[in-house]
Amino acid sequence: MTHAALVLAFGGLAVFVGAIVQGSVGFGAGLVAAPVLTLLGPDLMPGAIQVVNMVLPLFTLAVEWRRIDWRGIRFAVLGRVPGSVVGAVIVVYFSAYTRGVFVAVMVLIAVGLTARALSVPRNGATVTAAGFVSGVTGTATGIGGPPIALVYQHAKGPQIRATLAMFFFLSAAQSILVLAVVGELPPQALVTGAVLLVPMVLGFLVSSPVRRYVDGGKVRTAVLIVAAASAVVLIVQNAAMWLLN
């Protein structure tokens, strides 16, 4: 199996699982897929996952757009803009391997905070701050969901999914633009992202019955375990390469 086929096979599986989770609970595609894609094809990241991050929310919005919290979206985007600039600086000045470790650390932090069900009050300040952090991690690594999801964790399911979907769509579009401006969006990343839309659509379709019949907390717990394992593998891999060099 060629390297490109390996990336599409295992990256596609990760995107498929991530789409199931995000379609069910509102976030998770980047959390699951970004570590796997970064491990297999660091030069394709974060552009490839941003393509998925931009298209996937449109499916949720087609069903639940009426439940968007527009006030929260305004505050989140306000913080997201400067955060994406910081994320772009990280992409430009740090190597793919350094960003890989950054991805892993952000995933482990997100896993820890989510597993502890950290309670964060939802107001203009916290949503803006979450938007900023999401901008940094989302632009640099493709993982921007956990900060916003933590702020909205006590909202009702439809509002969480709709609000996060709108934020993710705007965020991914902004990140793709910023990465293109700074010259960190290679054509191969876009092509890979486009191909990964196929397993993404399949995953979203599967998420509909999952959302109805499976408890979201159990699905999220299982995926966080997989994400944490991927992050640990990513750290070990990059540490080994650093020692060899």
TrEMBL record:
Keywords: Cell membrane, Membrane, Transmembrane, Transmembrane helix, Transport. It is a multi-pass membrane protein. InterPro entries: TM_pro_TauE-like, TSUP. It is found in: Cell membrane. The chain crosses the membrane at residues 44-63, 75-94, 100-118, 162-183, 189-210, 222-244. One of its GO terms (cellular component) is plasma membrane. Belongs to the 4-toluene sulfonate uptake permease (TSUP) (TC 2.A.102) family. This is Probable membrane transporter protein. It comes from Nonomuraea jiangxiensis.
